[in-house]
Fold each of these.
Amino acid sequence: MKENNLAFYLKIYFKIISQDIKSKMSYRSDFIISTIGMIFTNIAGFVSFWIIFRNFPSINGWTYNEILFLYGFSLISLTPVQCLFDNNWNLRTHVYSGDFIKYYFRPINMFFYYQSEIFDVKGLGQLAFGIGTLAYSWHKIGLAVTPLSILMVIVFIITASLVMIALQNAAAATCFWLQNSFFILDFVNKFRDYARYPITIFNPVFKFIFTFVMPIAFIAYYPSLVILRPDSIPLLSWLSPLFGIVFFFLSYKFWMFGASKYSGTGS
Amino acid sequence: MKLKKYGTLVRAGLMESLQYRASAFVLVIGNLLYLIIIYFLWKAIYASAGTDTVSGMTFSETLIYLVLATALFNFMEMYIVWDMGRSIQSGDMVLMLLKPMEYRSYLFWSYSGEHIMQFITTFLPTFLIVCIVTHGAIPLGINLVYFVISVVMALLINYYINFFVGTICLYTESIWGINIMKQVIVMLLSGVTVPIAFFPETLQKIVYCLPFQSIYNAPLTLLLDGQPESGNVLSILVTQFLWCAVMGIACRLFWKLSIRQITVNGG
């Protein structure tokens, strides 16, 4: 069997992940509590959102339902990073303790193997919440539901996810150089909460920063414009799939570069 | 000597936090970016509102409140739930219990050093910058004294809440889920993310009956009030004191009860 094709990797992926899910299921109470915790986070986020909009009818020409759309969009596009790339949070510990050395002895792509070890089930709650929010706001704004628009949403959500995954990969990979990289990961993680606001609220300098340096604007704002403001879609929205792929590729290279510098702890 | 051992723990904490200078740098940058986002977000919100005052707060009042709340949050942040949960899972808890010092006070004092450091590196600079930038929007008088008293009690309440939640981990073996629930509840109901003045009336009433607003809202209210009425100040401080006492006793009882039936895995 050829070892590089997609089918091979998919097969391995499901094998590894099913092991992880089995081991998680043996801690049933932890699983239930974590899921409830995730639901809490989403509800709390929504409540603070609702409180702000109780006092203010709109932000910068964006109505409540439109911002809700961004909110739902960002929740969905953050699901893959939560579910599939959660092992990035453990990278620091693996590197620090020396455990990480074991990944060098696997005959498949290291990045792939490392990320497939963990599947975070509780992210699915967020997905459900996000889909609900998106569907509700979609209906309220009165956007048409066509096969094309559904397809576009799916494509743009995937590309938006790639940006967030890229940010997290890069943040996690800093642990190959820095000892206490938790703060960097945590920092990036906090920023995703702000991805849900329209970028037009910022001045040009920060618009630039949040578009190209810390590309959180691609997590919800640019891709959702394609659906929300079909009359005037900026070029950056159309380019966002490209940006997603480029950012992801760069972060992957950075991650692998860090891994190639790792020399173990000697134990 | 009782005091000496506490002093040693505080010093150890101080030195430990000095160790991670890189992380302190990331924290500062992260906070700066976070504050910039808050600034633009609320500026856009107020610009869309059309009036200067919303729910009794002007833009600059809201901003000062949120900036200082964030600084206060960073200064008081602690990871006790994680510490306790991990030492249960790893079995280290046994070693902690064997120490000739109560675990509760051991944890508290070893965090104090870090708190002092955080106060100097995060809260104080933010406070001074806000003072200078706003040209005396923060009154400098007797309110500073009230603030300091209030902050010390806030720290205690925060510690007790964390410890209480950490004790729950003795039963659940779930850290992430429990911790995230605590975090979102505290963040939402303490007024860190959205000032309590914006809450709907019934929610405000509920929030004032809960301990969480005593952590961030109470000290900030005292700090920003230039002409404090003694009745008002007294009621805030007494409320905080009562919560300190209630939470302190609750923690003590819960811990004593739980410690009898913990099961520690190996060790």
Amino acid sequence: MKLKTVLIYAALVLVLSLSLAPAAADGHCPQEGGTFTIGVDTFLPMDPNTAAHDWTFYAITNINSMLFRIESGQPVGDLAESWDISEDGTVYTWHIRPGMMWHDGNEVFPEGESREVTAHDVVYSIYRQYDDTSSIMAADLRNLFVSAEATDDHTVVLTLSGPDAIMYDKARGLTFTAIVAQEAIEHYGDDYGLNPLGSGPFEFVSYSPDEEVVLRANEDYYIDPCLDEVIFRVMPDVPAAMIALEAGDIDWWGAVTPGDDVGRFLDNEDMTVINFGCPVATRLYMSVDKAPFDDVRFRKALSHMKDGNAINAALRGPTHVKGAGTAGPGVAGYVEGLYDEYHAYDPELSMSLLDELGIVDSDGDGWREMDGELLEIPMFAWNSDPAPDYVAATVDAGAQIGLKIRPEIADPGTNNARRKDGEWGIYLGQGWCGEGGTNALWGRNGWISTLGYVDEEIFTLLDQSAQNLDEESREAQLQAATTRVAALYFEPAFGFFNIFTVKNNYVKDFFGGEWTLNLVTDDHNVWINEDER
Amino acid sequence: MIPLVFGVTTATFALIHLIPGDPVELMMSNARQLTQEEIHRIREKLGLNDPLPIQYVRYVTNLLKGDMGKSVRSRSAVSYEIMQRLPDTVILTVTSICLVLVLALPIGILSALKRGTWIDTLAMTFALFGVSIPAFWFGIMLMLIFGLHLDWLPTVGQGKTPIEFARSLILPSVTLSLILLGLVTRVARSSMLEVLSLDYVRTARAKGLGAKWVNFRHALPNALIPILTVVSGQFASLLGGAVLIEKVFGWPGIGRLAVDSIFARDYLVVTNTVLVFAVMVILVNLANDILYCYIDPRIRFQ
């Protein structure tokens, strides 16, 4: 064989092997180095006890190891290599990955003087959250918690007083428990959040409030990160952030992308729109213990008076999802057809229901009265887009059936105070995706309980489902709760919107964030193709 | 100054507590919902369940000891939060004022000297443009043109090296300067016109002095006093404008901290940032009074 032929074959084999090379998942990086810049809307100090903020927690989940991470809604091992759950669901035995080291080269662990992360660190971290009464440890977990014990250096036994079916849900479970070193907490005291130290894939470098957080690759992590550096850049203005994303000044916009921009980015071949996979509902809440809201017929009239699906589609653009209920498509407890059954546009039905209730236009001025007086209902909403547009559409729909609705737009703090005081009126609200969100809304002492949403049957169904480890019957309980909420309260729905985030295509092997931001795992290792940047 | 500072802190403390809303609930709303039991527990730990007068006395006592307290939102020391951002706001504001003086003064003076000509019309159109255009919109436009399409300047954030820092300062400072640019140009023109019509200027001309000497040696110093008064008087509005610009350009300043803290009901951060704003405005006015003496030696303070 001639040398030329050999070289051609060799070149072909090389090209073929490169094209078939596995992604970064097995630790091999197609291109090492580079900085991944993530745009976030705000950022707080990174103490897992106090960082009640998604994007801050994204940094924490890369600095500190977690017992587990969430991928596609399922837990995957991180610091815990594996775990067992007792049959009754009350005892969790976590097997800690050996050889995980705390970051060194800092004030706590000087270069080369780090130590292994052990089960005792996990126990310390859990009790640190449990003992701090102002920590963000979820009340449900706190109430179920019995003990955490290190049976040896690599085994932790967590005991609960009852089973918890949603241990892995952000709103209730263990996902807020990042593992910290006692030495670091004692060294930095209250300033730990400004100098976080962990054992995760990236080490903390610097924090400039309201500006950025810089992390660098931890070469001692059990998987070598492909990236050299990760920067969280704070960008409070969303339109400006969208320009920065297109200009390549940030590589991924980690927060919710507005519907209009999603449409634009879907047509941009340099960008990828990532679906977070957990639709969020937009709906109306009411003071259900006060007249006329205490009558289900009035709530039903409000639900049918507007074309919620059309309004939501117009305001949410490509992020719109038709539906109703406490959980969206893909989330446990979702009931298909709920919208058509309870919320379909039918102004004639609304008017007949109002007539039936005696809420009529007796003086002929075009507006309905109740007990001889004009019925003017305040509608409370927050002051950022698209909330005021939902209010305008609702006011307009009310006017079509002679119901006077008065917009009351204020900042979220003022609206929260009104809701807590149970002020009479209609509230525009958004749900939270995930089972924990359903529970936090409609469960005992739920977020809207101050407006009179108190129903023992719903509470029982949610309590039972939260402790039911059988997936099938739990789904049935959640669906029953969802359906009862709709039938009982007719919480007028507009529909859901998908949470989309957007990345530049030169960011590879990255699938977006869930409850934890997974940049380096057994399955994928984010890298930047600098040639495409 | 002390009564003023005391008044500002008392009024701010009272006003921010009058706004409905709970800092603990707002703090958590991005992550998950809290039960009433959890909210009460966290409020207790943070001292928010105490009666307002007790919270106020605690705040003032700590302030006199140099302790501004802790932020509810970040749980960091308020002094840390402020000191991390104050230099950035000062740099942005001072650069903008310099830009205003460098651009508005020559344009305004030239406009006055060439009154009624096309130069005057062009200058006043420029001033009208500055007064009429919303700064945040102008900022977005600059970002689109120079950041995205031309790719000359970074769209957001601060550069780390001196050159990068200077480049990242251009768009926000130009945008912020727009707030004062139109106003100062118009004031410079009208002030110069007024001085040029005074008797002593006519006398100087009658004595045969050259136009340059009359305009810049005799007229300009007197025309500067109203301009300085306007610039220092507008310093507070520039700080107010910085809030928007800092947000649009992701500039980590104290204005953004103040606004975010108002929305988060982070009481101590709001009270202390307003206190810092007040002190800054007082200091600028003091500096302005001192400058008067240098510009016009007839002005002396007892």
